[in-house]
């Protein structure tokens, strides 16, 4: 084992670096192409009310399948898009597509909210509020049905405040994504008017295994209650996680337990199935109660 740390190891290390850099450059080029040709899709993940199983909203998640690279995760290509300047047009496409889709669902799935992720660079653009305004205008979506998911770091970045004020005037909601994983002090919660906190899935993963994670979740729920934030927990995969979150008063969850992100055309059926599930559950508990 120690031997591989010799010159061979260094050579191999250099090769890996070179190929990783090359791959990034290649990806960056393909990404420009994809942005130009709108070669993305949006998948939508339900946010489920724990009591009624009503789907109160969906989160739009971008998907990219490149003919050469195959499916590339947004965790990989969003940072590249932020670097090469493609995040602007890409983000605008996401907003427009999500708003148009939400508008289409407004009749059959009334009140279902659309959450859209906004990356730090996107929020930092001085024209961002205008982009949001235009997407709402052209889709004719009610602003209160749009929620923007922003991470703590992006919220507190210099220059974000006027944009957030403008977004507030437009009437869209703001959710703090990955809440609890940033490095910001809690005092920013006073300055920035967020509507909702999203409990990061790294904490949810610790339910049943880490007393610290469980304590942090309870603290976030208490904080949200006393400061008047709405709340959603993300990355809920198991029944025991749902039970814990329900026990401590988390009203809405999102995660593979209920559904992964789905293509738009599968959402109405998923919504119907989830509410059927809760009807059966209610009937069952009525029977056992009688
Ligand atoms: P995020 O906004 O925190 O999204 C949650 C991620 O967790 C999504 O991954 C989702 O598919 C995944 N997820 C949901 N439920 C579960 C679960 O129960 N278990 C596990 N293990 N994972 C779950 P995805 O779609 O790969 O997105 C990754 C990140 O990329 C997102 O994190 C977000 O930061 C970014 N992203 C995705 N779409 C967009 C977009 O349209 N615009 C921007 N700016 N960023 C996006
Ligand atoms: Mg998100
Ligand atoms: Mg998140
Ligand atoms: Mg995340």
Automatic annotation (TrEMBL):
Q: Tell me which residues make up the EAL domain.
A: 24-275
Q: What is this protein called?
A: EAL domain-containing protein
Q: Which organism is it from?
A: Trinickia dinghuensis
Q: Which residues of the full protein are shown?
A: 512 to 801 of 809
């Amino acid at each position: 084992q120690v031997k591989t740390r010799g010159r061979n190891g260094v050579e191999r290390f250099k090769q890996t670096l070179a190929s990783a850099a090359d791959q990034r450059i290649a990806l960056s080029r393909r990404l420009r192409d994809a942005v130009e040709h709108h070669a993305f899709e949006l998948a939508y993940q339900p946010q489920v009310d724990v009591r009624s199983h009503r789907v109160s909203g969906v989160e739009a998640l971008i998907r990219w399948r490149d003919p050469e690279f195959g499916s590339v995760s947004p965790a990989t290509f969003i940072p590249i898009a932020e670097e090469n300047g493609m995040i602007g047009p890409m983000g605008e496409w996401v907003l427009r597509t999500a708003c148009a889709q939400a508008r289409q669902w407004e009749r059959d799935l009334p009140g279902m909210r659309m959450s859209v992720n906004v990356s730090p660079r996107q929020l930092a653009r001085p024209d961002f509020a205008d982009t949001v305004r235009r997407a709402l205008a052209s889709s004719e979506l009610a602003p209160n049905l749009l929620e923007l998911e922003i991470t703590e770091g992006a919220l507190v970045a210099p220059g974000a405040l006027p944009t957030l004020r403008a977004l507030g005037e437009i009437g869209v909601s703001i959710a703090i994504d990955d809440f609890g994983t940033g490095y910001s002090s809690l005092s920013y919660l006073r300055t920035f008017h967020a509507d909702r906190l999203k409990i990061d899935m790294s904490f949810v993963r610790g339910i049943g295994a880490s007393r610290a994670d469980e304590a942090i979740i309870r603290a976030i729920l208490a904080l949200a209650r006393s400061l008047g934030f709405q709340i959603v927990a993300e990355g809920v995969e198991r029944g025991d996680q749902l039970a814990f979150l329900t026990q401590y008063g988390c009203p809405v969850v999102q995660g593979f337990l209920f559904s992964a992100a789905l293509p738009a055309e599968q959402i109405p059926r998923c919504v119907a199935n989830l509410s059927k599930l809760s009807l059966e559950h209610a009937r069952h508990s009525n029977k056992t109660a009688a």
